[in-house]
Write a structure and sequence with these properties.
By secondary structure, the chain is mostly helical. Helices cover about 75% and strands about 0% of the residues. It has 54 helices and no strands. Helix 10 packs antiparallel against helix 11, helix 13 packs antiparallel against helix 14 and helix 15 packs parallel to helix 17.
């Protein structure tokens, strides 16, 4: 059935005129009902017609009363009752002039009540009787919708076509066109449907124009015509800018751009819809569209290989969409990106979540494949084998089976089990050859992997034969990998000249890092072995210039030295041998010479050269007495060179290989710090703990304790961190970290609301001749403790000292703000006001979180009960939202704005401000919200709109758990009932107030009013 409901056809008019004279109670009752009907007061009309029928069921006008009662019920959307009423009218007056309309109305009401069998019966009966009655222009599209709803597309098409043929100018002609287009589209008649959509979309004043435009684009999108779809959806930025389809069209446009691989443009669209764009937000961003935009934004990042951003975005979207149909897709793609980002455990967690929570999802086999890929990337081959077995058992017919087996083959290659890998890959190639249209990429990948397996089995000719079709591919990563494999096979066969072309081609693809070093070293060796020495020297120079620190360099230099010697290039050979070591020199002297050279380079600031020399020493003389020092210092150099992984490897070498050396504690400290910097806090903590246990006399022992404490904080182990800070606090004599340790202990005590301990530690700290960089923080914390206990006067002295003694401290402005706040909280507005005013001037251009408090407090002081400067307060309060977006106390601002507007008599505007408070995400359940809701009631009360005021007061009592305001709301609601003369209801509310809130300040007034209304009620009875 179509997305948009058809509008109600017009109500049948009732001809009525005032009676010239009183004709009796029945006629008066009918006249009253008719009067309400003619004024479209449907609720009152229905009540009065019902009363007429109850009291005068046999009256001559009773059938018409039944009809107009049903008409009123239609307008009140009480469709079931209306349909029954129209059928009752037909039963009572089968030959009345309104009978035909009643038959139509019965069908229409049933249709709108979703009782489609009844509707179909009545509407078909109406069409048999109606001839050319214009109401047929409604009946036919209704029947079309019913047929479409049960997917009887041929019948739907027929009804819509009749609607257009019989009533070409009918009120629902465009409804028929749209329904007909949808029916044709669902029958696969796309071109006919599109022509109708295009015609409707061109009628810009038609209510279906934007729907048609959207369906046109959707049809093109579904057919993969993304350029055409993009053009269709573009209309929602111009011709249909106000359409409710606008955001969905923007989403579909972004998806079209995605499939056109215009990722940057797609990303901009999705960011705008997801609320992440830097510019203006979309006018209406439906929650559904926003969520889908975030999903697609994640897919764009994934397509652009921005794995971390993709994973983070998808996970954030999934967290807000656990019940959404896209949730398993979000989790799967997030897991897939986490695999590529190297976060294997997290990836497996996402895959497991999909498998467990959505076991029937289409992504379950994808998630098992993802778990297999994660295990492969993590090198966990045992887990991979288990997961492959599970996959093959649970999904024997999955189209992903080939991917699973390919991953298993890669695992076998990584495990150095080439024979098993070859068997598996030969099977995959054979299976692919049997398919009518095997995936070319799959076949090429399988050939490449099989060639690697043959290399591992030393079947070099088979490897080269297998690689032939892969080497014929266009340029790309797979072809480059195949060239490397081919070169490897040729070198292994000592076919050096034949290996040169594939190596040249491999390097032409511009590999980086170790891959480039491998290519250059192999090319230099092959050139030298094939007597192309001039070029071999050039390649060697490039290798030496770009990859001297690479582990490929020394073997290449040694091999080239031998090749040069074999080729008669003695000078070059001598240079190469000298660069390694002089032949015949005792190892300890060579190691010492290398060490001295390295230290000289290090002291001269030649860090890369020093690191390379130390590396050579360690590679050639790992057991030399200088090796531990070389490893440690090389690690420190690499750390300075911003190569943390390489530096960590050196520190680990000292720890593992030279455990008894004097360098071990420094290596432990260096490794701990690198783990700390990389946020691998558990590893860092273990190393710091070992340093503390094994090297308590280390000169940096206090540093170890201090850094360890911070790591434990990162691990969310505050108690253990505090124990270390306590050790630093208790150390005698006091160390360099004493003051900071005491402050951190005080800070933790404050966070746990142990204010007595906080103050005790701060007293100790401040009395301990604390260094200037910590004292301002201590003073600020002391003030915060006082303010947390609402001891506003006690907050003043430490803040004043901070401001006076540390005028250049970055905490000075915050201290001045807290001074002003403490003064305000003491109701000392005379001194608070100039302080806040001064802060307003001093903080221009800053972005501190507390800045919006300045105009808020200034406005609150202007609006206090003594000053009541409402206009001035309003002037300060209104810009806060735009100047400080995201202010967490914006609801307080809105309440103040409401008070100002209310005091100026602008009740509608005041209520709008109060409702912002009650709808605030942060303040919607605070006492301020209760006050705002109460004030909404007050505004209506002051306008003597007691019925509305009553409803608003009672919302306070129901929605908010603030007894004072609940009691006040009950009192005011009771007053509303009084004003309306509803004494019983007033009595009930006053009694409830006294029972629920007997200690309330409103109880006395409620007691007096209860007595008064009870007397009134008694008098009335």
């Amino acid at each position: 059935m179509r997305a948009n409901f058809l509008n109600l056809s017009l109500a049948v008019a009732l001809a009525a005129s005032p009676a010239a004279a009183w004709a009796g109670p029945a006629e008066d009752q009918y006249a009253v009902a008719a009067g309400h009907y003619n004024q479209k007061r449907w609720k009152l009309a229905a009540e009065e017609f019902q009363k007429f029928l109850t009291d005068y069921s046999d009256h001559a006008k009773a059938p018409r009363a039944v009809f107009y009662l049903a008409e009123s019920q239609v307008q009140l959307r009480r469709f079931d009752e209306a349909a029954a009423g129209f059928r009752e009218f037909i039963r009572r007056a089968p030959d009345n002039s309104l009978t035909r309309k009643a038959r139509f109305r019965a069908g229409e009401a049933s249709f709108l009540a979703s009782r489609f069998e009844d509707a179909e019966r009545d509407l078909n009966e109406f069409l048999k009787l109606s001839g050319d009655d214009p109401l047929g222009g409604y009946a036919l599209p209704y029947l079309g919708d019913i047929a479409a709803g049960r997917h009887d597309l041929a019948a739907a098409q027929e009804f819509y076509s009749q609607g257009l043929t019989r009533f070409p100018q009918g009120p629902l002609q465009d409804d028929c066109r749209f329904g007909l287009a949808q029916s044709l589209e669902e029958q696969g008649r796309q071109e006919e449907a599109r022509r109708l959509y295009l015609a409707l979309a061109s009628k810009t004043k038609s209510p279906w124009a934007d729907d048609a435009q959207y369906r046109l684009g959707a049809s093109q999108y579904a057919a993969g015509e993304f350029d055409a779809a993009l053009q269709s959806f573009a209309a929602f930025e111009t011709s249909f800018d106000g359409s409710p389809w606008k955001d969905k069209a923007a989403l579909a446009a972004g998806q079209s751009l995605f499939y056109l691989q215009k990722y940057d443009q797609a990303k901009a669209r999705f960011k705008a819809l997801a609320g992440e764009a830097g510019g203006a937000q979309p006018e209406v961003a439906l929650a559904e569209v926003t969520l889908e935009a975030k999903y697609w934004l994640g897919l764009v990042c994934k397509a652009q290989r921005n794995w971390q951003a993709a994973a983070d975005g998808l996970l954030a979207a999934a967290a807000a969409a656990e019940q959404h149909p896209l949730a398993p897709a979000m989790r799967f793609h997030a897991g897939d990106c986490l695999v590529y980002a190297g976060r294997f455990a997290e990836a497996a967690g996402q895959f497991d979540l999909v498998i467990q929570r959505w076991p029937q999802s289409q992504y379950v086999d994808d998630c098992w494949l993802g778990k297999i890929h994660a295990a492969l990337a993590a090198g966990d081959h045992a887990a991979l084998d288990e997961r492959v077995a599970t996959f093959m058992r649970q999904f024997p017919e999955s189209p992903l089976k080939t991917d699973v087996l390919r991953a298993q083959a890669r695992s076998l290659l990584a495990r150095k089990e080439p024979a098993r890998a070859a068997t598996l890959l030969e099977g995959l190639l054979a299976a692919g050859a049997e398919k009518s249209a095997p995936a070319a990429t799959d076949a090429a990948t399988h050939r490449y992997l099989l060639a690697l397996a043959y290399l591992g089995m030393e079947r070099y000719d088979d490897a080269l034969t297998t690689l032939g079709p892969v080497l014929a591919l266009p340029d790309g990563e797979l072809r480059s990998d195949a060239q490397r494999a081919a070169a490897t096979a040729l070198v292994a066969q000592r076919k050096f000249a034949e290996a040169v072309p594939p190596l040249d081609a491999y390097l032409k693809a511009n590999p980086t890092g170790d891959a480039a070093a491998w290519g250059q070293s192999q090319l230099a060796i092959c050139l030298a072995r094939s007597k192309q020495l001039d070029r071999a020297k050039q390649v060697y120079q490039a290798l030496a210039g770009e990859h001297r620190a690479s582990p490929r360099f020394a073997p290449a230099a040694a091999a080239l030295a031998e090749a040069a010697l074999d080729a008669g290039e003695e000078a070059w050979s001598a240079q190469l041998f000298a660069s390694l070591s002089a032949e015949g020199t005792p190892p300890r002297y060579v190691a010492r010479g290398l060490s001295g050279t390295a230290w000289h380079q290090f002291r001269g600031g030649q860090l890369p050269e020093a690191a390379a020399t130390f590396e050579r020493l360690l590679a050639n003389y790992p057991d030399d007495a200088l090796a531990p020092e070389a490893a440690l210092v090389r690690g420190q150099i690499l750390e300075q060179l911003k190569q943390p992984d390489a530096a960590l490897a050196m520190f680990r070498a000292v720890i593992d290989k030279y455990a008894a050396s004097p360098q071990e504690p420094q290596a432990l400290l260096g490794a701990a710090r690198l783990h700390n910097l990389a946020a691998r806090y558990a590893e860092a903590a273990a190393l710091y703990e070992r340093l503390d246990r094994e090297f308590p006399n280390l000169a940096e022992h206090e540093t170890v304790l201090y850094e360890w404490a911070w790591v434990l904080r990162e691990l969310d182990k505050p108690a253990e961190a505090d124990a270390l800070f306590e050790r630093l606090r208790a150390a005698t004599p006091r160390g360099r970290y004493w003051a900071d340790a005491v402050y951190r202990l005080a800070e933790r005590a404050y966070q746990t609301k142990d204010f007595a301990r906080t103050n005790g530690l701060l007293n100790e700290l401040i009395a301990g001749d604390v260094e200037p960089k910590i004292l301002p923080h201590a003073l600020l914390l002391r003030a915060q403790v006082a303010m947390a206990g609402e001891q506003w006067a006690e907050a003043g002295p430490p803040l004043a000292r901070l401001v006076a003694e540390f005028p250049d401290s970055p905490l000075k402005l915050l201290a001045e703000y807290l001074q002003a706040e403490a003064t305000y909280r003491q109701s000392d507005y005379e001194h608070a006001e100039p302080r806040f005013a001064r802060l307003a001037d001093e903080t221009q251009g800053r972005h501190d979180k507390w800045l919006p408090m300045i105009p808020l407090r200034r406005a609150q002081m202007l609006a206090n009960e003594e000053r009541k400067q409402w206009s001035e307060a309003l002037e300060l309060a209104l810009p806060i939202e735009s100047e400080f977006p995201g202010f967490e106390l914006q609801y307080e601002v809105e309440y103040l704005i409401g008070r100002c507007l209310q005091s100026q008599g602008s009740f509608d505007e005041a209520r709008a401000a109060y409702r912002k408070v009650t709808r605030s995400e942060t303040g919607g359940k605070t006492e301020t919200a209760a006050m705002a809701q109460w004030m909404i009631g007050e505004t209506y009360f002051h306008q003597k709109n007691y019925e509305t005021a009553l409803r608003e007061y009672l919302r306070v009592e129901i929605l908010y758990d603030y007894p004072n305001w609940q009691a006040g709301a009950l009192l005011q609601a009771g007053k509303c009932h009084e004003a309306l003369g509803e004494w019983k209801q007033a009595s009930e509310l006053f009694a409830k107030l006294l029972k629920s809130f007997p200690e309330s300040a409103f109880a006395a007034d409620a007691t007096l009013r209860l007595q008064a209304v009870q007397k009134r009620a008694e008098a009335k009875n």
